Automatic annotation (TrEMBL):
Homodimer which binds Holliday junction (HJ) DNA. The HJ becomes 2-fold symmetrical on binding to RuvC with unstacked arms; it has a different conformation from HJ DNA in complex with RuvA. In the full resolvosome a probable DNA-RuvA(4)-RuvB(12)-RuvC(2) complex forms which resolves the HJ. The gene is ruvC. Belongs to the RuvC family. It comes from Pedobacter miscanthi. This is Crossover junction endodeoxyribonuclease RuvC. GO terms for cellular component: cytoplasm; Holliday junction resolvase complex.
Length: 198
């Protein structure tokens, strides 16, 4: 039988070279609590290498502050222009290197998988993802930058992926399937029928 920790801190990062979003959650048994969410801004920096340095340094600070058991990070979106993809890949790689420098394991999720896990639709907007997270984790204020809730979404997406007793990963196709398997973990949502159009 697999011996799982009763508590687990998960950090999620939405990498970016202008704004990097992050969210930190605590799993306690069947409950998930919001610890923190926020952004690291780099808009004041012109030098792309200084931006990468800031991503590394701030990610290390976050690792030391919250001591996550795992980092979940969003993969770059492949449909973007090649220059944008290159910049996002560098930002993601630097954040991963920062986590690995603190011996924090890393898991990557596609943007579509994250949206599907949170809202039930892989085509959900940032606003729809933020609204579902507010209900799920019971917080009211919408952050100034939706990059923060995007980072939080990556952490929650990782939380939805479970390890079964046989050591195999259990994934959920979306919010409804997660709710039906985790009725004690989800509170404050009256109805699991939350599929979004799109």
């Amino acid at each position: 039988m697999l011996n799982e920790k009763k508590e687990r801190v998960i950090m999620g990062i939405d990498p970016g070279t202008a704004v990097m979003g992050y969210g930190v959650i605590l799993e306690k048994g069947n409950k998930t609590e919001l610890i923190s969410l926020g952004v690291v801004k780099m808009t004041h920096l012109d030098d792309p290498f200084l931006k990468l340095q800031r991503i590394f340094e701030k990610t290390v600070v976050l690792m030391e502050q919250y001591k996550p058991d795992v980092l979940a990070i969003e993969a770059p979106f492949y449909g973007k222009n090649i220059q944008v993809l290159l910049k996002l890949g560098r930002a993601q790689g630097i954040a991963i290197a920062a986590a690995l420098s603190r011996n924090v394991p890393v898991t990557e999720y596609s943007p579509r998988k994250i949206k599907q896990s949170i809202t039930g639709s892989g085509n959900a907007t940032k606003e729809q993802v933020a609204a579902m997270l507010q209900r799920l984790l019971n917080f009211k204020e919408t952050p100034e930058f939706l990059d923060a809730t995007d980072g939080l979404a990556v952490a929650v997406c990782h939380s939805f992926q479970k390890i079964t007793a046989g050591g195999k990963s259990k994934t959920y196709s979306g919010w409804e399937s997660f709710v039906s398997d985790n009725k004690t973990k989800v509170t404050g949502v009256k109805k699991a029928n939350t599929k979004l159009k799109g």
